[in-house]
Amino acid sequence: MVNAALRAPVVAAPEEFRRFERKFPVEPARADLLAAWLGHACLQAGAYPVGRVTSCYFDTPDWDSYFASIDGDHEKRKVRLRWYDALPATGPVTAFLETKEKAGFATWKRRAPVTLDASRLRAGQFERALPRALLDSTLVRLGDFEGGHLRPAVVISYLRLRFVEPASGIQLALDTHQEAWPAGSVFTGPVASLGPPVLEIKGPSLALPPRLSALRRWVTVWSSHSKYATAVESLARVLDPRRL
Question: Which of 11, 41, 73, 138 has the most C-beta neighbours closer than 10 Å?
Fold first, then answer.
C-alpha cells in the first residue's frame, strides 16, 4: 500500500532570505584550525551547528545556469532541491525547493518545504520524486515563472559547520568534504571532489565586525567560487559534453 503521505506531496508556505554573501576558499590543511577559531570567535548556529547538506541542482538543456556562473554574469539564478543529513531508506522526507537569485554580492533566496519519497531521492529518481507539475507549481509560488525547461543536472553534498557572530548576527558556514555526482545516479555514478573547503559569510551588509577581522589570516582572497559550476566541470565527461 502506498503511504498516504506520498500520494499528495505537501507544500507549505515559502520562506524568503535577503542578504549579502561572499565565499572564501580555505587551504585544506588549515580547515580544522579555522573551525576551531570560529568556535572561539563565534557561537554555534542554532539547533543544527553541524550537518551534511545535499542538493540536486536543476538547469536547462543548454546549461544556462552554468554559463551564467562561469561568464561572470552580474545577475544569476539557480534552482535546487535540498535536504539535510542522511535520507531514510523509505517513507516520506522533508526537502526544500529553493530559488536563489544573485546580483553582485546581494542574494535573494526563497524556499518551500515539500514532502517527497525518500527511496526515490536515494535512487536518483528526481523527476519521479518531484514531478514536473509539482516542480512548476512550487516555483510559481516562489515567484519563479521560468521553470518549464529545467531538468535535474548534478547533485552536490558537503559537510557544513554553522556559526553566528553574536554582535552582528552575521552567519558563517564552513563547507568541507565536498562531492558531486550526476543527478540520475546518486549511488552508482562517478563521484567528483570539488576542491578545497569554502567559508561562506552571509549578513545584512558587506561590513565585518571587529571580532571577525582576523579572518584574513585564515582565508585566501574573496572568490566568485560556485560549487555548481565546479561540479559541472568536474563531471563534464559523464554529463552531456556536446552541450558544454
Answer: 138
